[in-house]
Secreted protein
Amino acid sequence: MSTLRKLHLGLGLAFVTALGFVAGPVFADDPSDDESVGEASSALSLHCTMSGPPGERADAILTLLPGGKCRRDRTGVPGLVTTPSCHQLARHIGCFLIN
């Protein structure tokens, strides 16, 4: 097996494993004042990062919504460098960011 194929396979397995650890129902905000509570309560949520203050990454939750849409909500804590960006994660799973 070529080195490039081994590297690609290793990165793919690492990404899938990371998604397995962060998948689960997690809410960043109090859902009581959100109009899409019914949709988001049964949706899948994943950790990702988004732009924070200059030079920083902010932790966020990417929530999959019906109709191939997804939204991101900040958690209020700094994001890890190893966590994928919300845009990258949305492209990978094939959803359209609405915010």
